[in-house]
Amino acid sequence: MDLSVVAYAIYLLVSIGLTIWVARTLSRNGRIFLADVLHGNEKLAEAVNHLLVVGFYLVNLGFVALYLQADGTIDTSRQVFEALSRKLGVVLLVLGLMHLGNVFALNKFRRRGIMDREQTPPVAPQAYTRPAPAGQVQG
Q1: Radius of gyration, alpha carbons of the chain
Q2: How far is CA 105 from the centre of its chain?
Q3: Count of CB atoms within 10 A of residue 49's CB?
Q4: Using CA atoms, how far apart are residues 72 and 104, in angstroms rounded to an integer?
């Protein structure tokens, strides 16, 4: 029996499981963060969160599928473990980079939202004062 098939099956199961776990974790914790960024608009936060999760799945599962091919023949159980550790290590690094990219982007949105809130006066202007005509001093 060719052990490459065993390695492929284990790789797919673990990679897809890790991708689902990371996506659910990001979705659950990112929802609160997005609600803050979007000024409490829960419906918009939920929609953006869902779109981010779908994009995360597409990119990561696409990478997992493209990275499936083995470099050579796998004849021993040791080679199965070596191939799996190499492939899963790369998948974990890609998942980590995607996670950091999401956190970086969300933090940037949050900072911009905080700056927008700070620029808005806490109380709307109550009146308008006309400038004095040229040459007159207000007193």
Answers
A1: 26
A2: 7
A3: 22
A4: 37
Alpha carbon distance 50, 7 (integer Å): 32
Per-residue confidence (pLDDT) for residue 72, from 0 to 100? 75
Averaged pLDDT for residues 127-133: 76
Contact predicate 87/67, CB 8 Å: yes
Say which residue the tokens 């004849």 belong to. 75
What does the block give as tokens for 113? 């939202």
Sign of CA dihedral 67, 68, 73, 78: positive
- The pTM for the full model equals 0.68
Q: 26, 56 in Cβ contact below 8 A?
A: yes
Spatial contact of 113 and 40, defined as CB atoms under 8 Å apart: no
The residue written with tokens 């996506």 in the block is: 23
Q: Taking a C-beta distance cutoff of 8 angstroms, is the pair 64, 9 a contact?
A: no
CB atoms within 10 A of CB 111: 11
Question: For residues 33 and 103, is the Cβ–Cβ distance under 8 A?
Answer: no
